[in-house]
Design goal:
By secondary structure, the protein is mainly alpha-helical. The chain contains 18 helices and no strands. Helix 4 runs antiparallel to helix 5 and helix 4 packs antiparallel against helix 9. It is globular and about 55 Å long.
Length: 403
């Protein structure tokens, strides 16, 4: 009996590393290649092609909306055991679209290409990856997701310098082609490799999906579904507003250009730091406690930013708490969903909830701009501070309805 247990543990551990590490590398590169590449190349496109910033960013917003709308369908396919085809297919589609992007000259071409990149995002970024991991690894999923995002947290660090250097050497069109080749040659094989072992693991551990779509959608009648949906929608709005308006807010608080950019660039490393801190304590605290701590951190961060003109230490507190709080929430989200709503039909459930999360991220910059136009950045910050406070009540409602 002990020998059998040892064999099971060894197999599980071997599959864990064979799933997690390929996915970690792949996610880092796909986020760098067709998410962060947009802001990395945006100034170059604006200068060389003559398109306005508003027109260009509209194409990126379209891709996010498309990704959100398709997320439930992608999740359903993963629940049905098609995660390998969806995940690898999304990356392959993105590679093809990046090749076409390198030849784009008209604004309608940008919108068409980013529409299809949005389709690729729905199948190959975090939500699809996390659904595959949760489906196959079960209780080990939280540790797997943490490790994947520790690596992928540096995607922006990979994308921006690479885009700059390759553009200086070869021009932006060749740089985009190199990004496309990276996805095709490195990411797709890694995804196929990791997905193969995820499928092996899921055969023994994954729950069977509901036979019909209507049966799977019964989850929408559960109040926990709506509580958790509101919770993460509000947090996405908070972070989207704060991040998109962070530099002008810093300038208003008295920071010069160089210092403002430096502090903004530290948000990413703080996300990684928050995730590493969570790894150290995750076996000793509940998912609910982790979420509460993150909401409190983001709430305090907002007030630190509001009073930021009183001293640089308050700006530093904002960067640390906002980065760490959101960094942990972005990876605890699938674990919270699984704990509240179960692992059965996880893909479609997480996909449905991702619609609100992504749309919140997409509308946040515009929402912040409207409030700024009718008030000032103090109003924007106060509004953002309210988001984690309300989210905390929604989260409590989700856990209370569970009990």
């Amino acid at each position: 009996m002990n020998d059998i247990k040892k064999i099971e543990v060894t197999t599980r551990n071997r599959n864990f590393s064979r799933i997690v590490f390929p996915f970690a590398i792949a996610e880092t590169l796909v986020w760098a290649a067709y998410f962060y590449s947009f802001p990395a190349f945006l100034p170059i496109w604006e200068a060389e092609l003559g398109f306005s910033k508003a027109n260009l960013t509209g194409a990126f917003t379209l891709s996010l909306v498309v990704s959100a709308v398709l997320s439930p369908g992608v999740g359903r396919l993963i629940d049905k055991g098609y995660g390998r085809a969806v995940f690898a297919g999304g990356a392959a589609l993105a590679s093809a679209m990046l090749c076409m992007l390198s030849q784009a000259t008209e604004i309608w071409q940008f919108y068409t290409i980013w529409f299809f990149i949005g389709m690729a995002m729905s199948g190959s970024l975090y939500d699809a990856c996390f659904a595959t991991v949760t489906y196959s690894l079960g209780t080990d999923a939280r540790r797997a997701i943490t490790l994947i995002t520790l690596a992928a947290g540096f995607a922006g660090t990979v994308s921006f310098p690479s885009a700059y250097l390759l553009t200086e050497l070869f021009g932006w069109r060749i740089a985009i082609l190199i990004f496309a080749a990276t996805v095709a040659i490195i990411c797709v094989p890694l995804i196929l490799y990791g997905s193969y072992f995820a499928r092996l693991q899921s055969k023994a551990h994954a729950p069977k999906a509901s036979k019909t779509l209507s049966e799977a959608l019964n989850v929408t009648q559960n109040p926990r579904f709506w509580f958790i949906g509101v919770t993460f929608f509000l947090i996405s709005v908070n972070h989207g507003i704060v991040i998109s308006h962070m530099l002008p807010i810093f300038y208003e608080r008295g920071l010069n250009d160089a210092l403002a950019v430096l502090m903004a660039s530290l948000i990413g490393p703080m996300q990684v730091g928050g995730r590493m801190t969570m790894m150290a304590f995750e076996n000793h605290v509940s998912v609910y406690a982790i979420c509460v701590a993150c909401f409190v951190a983001i709430f305090i961060a907002g007030w630190a930013l509001y009073f930021g003109e009183m001293g640089m230490i308050l700006i530093a507190i904002f960067v640390i708490l906002q980065g760490a709080g959101y960094g942990v929430l972005s990876i605890i989200r699938p674990t919270a969903i699984a704990e509240l709503l179960g692992r059965r039909d996880f893909g479609i459930i997480a996909g449905l909830l991702a619609v609100g999360f992504v749309i919140g991220t997409a509308i946040a910059p515009t929402l912040g701009s409207i409030m700024w136009m009718h008030g000032d950045y103090d109003l924007v910050i106060i509004f953002a501070i309210c988001m984690p406070a309300i989210a905390l009540f929604a989260l409590a409602g989700a856990w209370r309805s569970q009990s």
